[in-house]
Amino acid sequence: MSSSPFLNFIRSELRLRGYSLKTEKSYLYWIKYFIRYHQLKHPTNMGSEEVRDFLSFLAVERNVAINTQKVALNALAFLYNKLLDQPLGDLSFQHAKQGRRLPIVLSPSEIQKILTNLNERDHLIFSLLYGSGLRISECLRIRIQDINLEQGSLAVRCSKGNKDRTTILSRKLTESINKQKINVHKIQQEDNSKGYGPSLPFALGRKYPNAFRQFSWMFLFPSTSICPHPITGELCRHHLHDSVPRKVLKKSVHAAHILDKRVNCHTFRHSFATHLLMAGRDIRTVQELLGHNDVSTTQIYTHVIGEHFAGTSSPIDQLL
Q1: 0.90 surpassed by pTM
Q2: 185 an active-site residue?
Q3: For 103-320, which CATH class?
């Protein structure tokens, strides 16, 4: 089914409209799932009733998470509302309400224990997650040109919502970053001698044929192997796959004997925000560093520290 003209049409439309490859993969997955669920009926012969039936199946039979339901609905809404010009209208489908979940946060000492069990490259990855408040995908997509050691800043490109932002970069990571850059430069020189280099965004490779030879386009954390570019098919070196640091983290958490918390890569971003607010930083500044559209999203971290507003303390503290 993956090579069908219809799915190729959807894929080309997603790329034409600038959707990320991650979104493309997700949307195609749910559209194929929807078609298979309805015994391979063509979507043009179905509509809102079949979509509602499919979403109910996911919620009741498969018991998928609320956010998973939303992604499936977004994929089908894109298909019908934007491609097939068959608006779904009111589906009369209510998502289950998701209560507020407080994020898991590590203490500084717990983070230190985890970092001590890592090699240089992985130590730098998790130092950036915690020190700059990055998502794991944002960290692995860092290119050399995004790093500004002099200003202590880091450019985050095409993050969630296809937005760019600038966040802080600890100058204490300068030595580690410079060491990693030396390793990366050696990898690039070897790749260039064979006629390939880092994977480049969109059509940049066609516009600038020699861009792959520029060190600025190299990923700070390149993959250990060569692969075909997902769009052009040309051999290139992509960034490290996120499964690598996830596996490393699991071992390090176990070695640090942190057994009472469910720790993942995103926990370091949660800890970054919480510790900044505990130190009295302005919530608007933290919002900007995290790249949140709405400050209400950032306010969840004030509940983690038990204070409605960052820096607020009980008035009795002044007397006792």
Answers
A1: no
A2: no
A3: mainly alpha
